[in-house]
Structure formats: C-alpha cells, structure tokens
Amino acid sequence: MARHTKVGGKPSLPMEGVLPDMFDARSIAEFFASDRGLGRNTDGGLKSHVDAEGFEFGMAVSQMATAQQNDHDAGHEHEDSGLELEFQSSSVTYVEDVHDHFEGDGHDHDEDEAQFDLNDLTDAARGGKGKPADDGSGTTVKGKGRTKDKASDVEPTPDPEPTPDPEPTPDVEPTPDVEPTPDVEPTPDPEVVSSNFGWINDTTYISGGDTPNEYNVELVFHLSWTVAQQQAAINAAELISDIIVSDVVSHNGIDDIRINAYTAADDGPGGILARGGVLDTRDDPLNMVSEGAFRIDTADIDRLMNDGRLEDVFFHEMLHSMGFGSGWEYNGLRELIDGQMRFVGETAMHVYETEFATQYKADADAHLGVILDSSGGHWNETVFTSEVMTPAMDSGADVGNLTLAALEDMGYETTYASETMIG
User: Fold this and answer.
1) Residues 34 and 81 grouped into a single domain
2) Is 192 exposed, middle or buried (0-12, 13-18, 19+ CB in 10 A)?
3) Do residues 297 and 397 both lie within one domain?
4) Using one digit for the tens of pLDDT, what is the confidence trace for 107-156?
C-alpha cells in the first residue's frame, strides 16, 4: 500500500512508526478518552500552557485511535503492513518533534498543569491507569499487579573465594638421642715404690728394705712408745714382708700398706690385749686393704714384753689390720653355716683337710669351710691351738700353713707352698 501524502512538508508516519508495538487501538482510544489525554482536562478546557501544536498532536492521535477502534468494532481487519495512518496536522508529524517541542525553551509547566508523559501512554497500552506508584519501600508499582523491585537490578555480590586450607606444619624431626658418654676409665694411681727403708722420720718405719720390690709395711707410730716397744713392732712388720713375697698395686699414694700403731688404755691388765682392723681398701674384687690400724693396751704391754710374747701380739694385730678376720665380710670369705661361722677360702679349706685330718673328720660340716671362733675373726681355739691367729695368745704360737693359706685366699702371694695344691 502506498505511503500517504505529506502533511506540513514532511512525510507522515504510520501509527506503528510513531508509537511502540505494544499500543493497540483500544489502548490509545482509552488513553485519550480519559482525563489524562492531551485533548482533555478536568475543567473542560486545555491549560493555557499547552500550546496549539501540542493540542493538534493530541487531537490527531485521538482521532486516529478512535477511527481504528471503530473499524475494529465493526469487524474490519487490516494487515499490519496494509494500514497507515497519518496525522491531520500541518505542523507536528514526528514523535521527535513532540519531544523537542516540550524540551525546548519557554515550555515550563507548573505542578498543577496537565503535562504530556510518555510513561502514561505506555501504562495505558499495558492496561495501567496512570503513572507508576512508589509504595515507599523502594518497589515501583506499574499497572495492575505489576511490580518491579529496584533492588533486583543490583548485581549480586559474588561469593567470596574460600580461604585455602593452611599448609600443614611439617612434623619436627625428633631430636636424636644423645649418645651416652662412656664411663671414663679411672686413672690408675701412679706406682709408688719405696726407696727409703727403715726409719724415714721420727715416727715412720718402712719394712722390707732387703726386698724393696716385694711387700712393704709403712709403720706409723702414734702417742707414747719406748724404743723396745717400737722394735718389737718393727720385727713383726719385717716378718710380714718376709712371708708376703709379691708387691700389690699402689693406692692413694701408699705402696703396699700403711699400718698405724697406737698405745692406749683399754680394759686393764689381763683382759683384751690389743685390737686391730681395716681403715681403707682398694677397688678390686677382693677389696685388698691399703690402710689399717691397731691399738695395744698400755696395761698389758710391759708384761707381754717381759713374757716374750709382745712381738707375736703385734704380728697378730697387724694381720687384722691387713684384713684377716676384719675384712672377710667385704670379700665373701666368711659364711654362717648351720649356726657356725666358717672360712670358705679354697686354699685354707685344703690345708684344713690335709694338715688337720683328725679334726676335719670329726667336723661334720668340714667340707663346707674351716671352723672359726664365735666372733668369726679367728681360727677356732680348740681345733687350732698352736696357730698364731687363734683368739688366745699362747706361748709358742707360730705362723702355720693355715694362716698363710688364708692370706693366699685374701689375694696375697705368700711363702705358702704345697705339692698337693699343684694342678
């Protein structure tokens, strides 16, 4: 269908070129039939500020809409591309002209004046009754039942990136166990060899000058001694150096042994003649003595000198100072067996069996050890009457093989020798 002639020198536009597609004839007719139409006003006349061109445009649109509605009601149908409507106006034909007209200078309107609003026309086409209303909550209401939430236009805040799991702390390598410091071997005492013998000062005498590399006794006198008394003690010390034929390891600056000799009042005449014991031992399995002491009763010393027994008493007490009887508890050489104290050294037990055969056979437990006195520090007086290490100091006591054998069991190398022990 050909385009209609121009109005006012410009080509007229079809209706669909002027208004959006959603406007149909009924919507347009209803809009312009209402009080909101540009050609109407509630007081029956157009406001003074609406100029003639706006009036003419409104009337033209209203007439076309009314005509289109009448055709529709009469059953006339037109194809979208076959019906063109033109504006019956000599001055306003483009929608752009209308917009420019109302945006131009000198067209301000008061709040109570009728104003052209394309939104009103759009709402009418969609079935609404006026401008969108704001319910006060930020939600805009358009038409019947149509709402639009302004907040919905806001882009949603993206979910925050999850915090990555922290790297696990690596296991700490365990501190290796510290290697234990090995025990330091004790530094052995420097070997002391007696070079001076006899009297080395006013109180000290060293025996064994004729055998300097063998066993030496350092005899130290304390308190009051006569020369004769000291000589009796020196003779006993030399005898020990004669029967013990081997040196022992030095200890605390002592070559072999130091014996301290005392004179003191004890229990009066005829009682206990003397006492002797251990002061210090070496660190060896047999705890060999390095220092000892003895004391003789001043009430008996002169009598013993006159009887010729003082030297034997000194020898006896010096052996106690070396550990005989007094040190057996340290080296396991004494045991209580069936209520009887016995010496269990192998060498002495052999002498008991061989040299005291009669007594051995009479002793039911002889095979368990050599019988001792009740104190456990001497040989039994009844069985070994003549031995120097019995508790009673008889005249004519001698240093027999039983005593020497016991010294062997205690770790000393002596003059004891027996063919029966060979092998």
Assistant:
1) yes
2) middle
3) no
4) 444 444 444 444 544 454 444 444 444 444 444 444 444 444 444 456 77
Q: How large is the angle between the packed helices 52-73 and 95-103, nearest 10 degrees?
A: 150
Beta carbons within 10 angstroms of residue 267's beta carbon: 11
CA atoms within 13 A on the CB side of 229: 19
| Predicted confidence (pLDDT) per residue in 90-116, tens digit | 333 444 443 444 444 444 444 444 444
Count of domains forming the chain = 3
pLDDT for residue 340 = 97
418 closest CA partner among 407, 405, 406: 405
Distance CA 149, CA 154 (A): 10
Average pLDDT in the 344-370 region? 97
Whether 153 is in a domain gets the answer no
Distance set, CA 324 to CA 87, 204, 343, 365 (Å): 154, 23, 11, 22
Domain that holds residue 131: 15-147
pLDDT, average across residues 372-382: 96
Residues 233, 227: Cα–Cα separation, whole Å: 10
Looking at 128, 147, 166, the residue that finishes a domain is 147
Q: Quick one: CA dihedral 350, 352, 358, 359, positive or negative?
A: negative
Which of 323, 358, 378 is where one domain is finished?
323
CA-to-CA separations, 413 to 38, 67, 410, in angstroms, rounded:
150, 156, 9
Question: Would residue 152 count as lying in a domain?
Answer: no
Rounded mean pLDDT of 403-415? 96
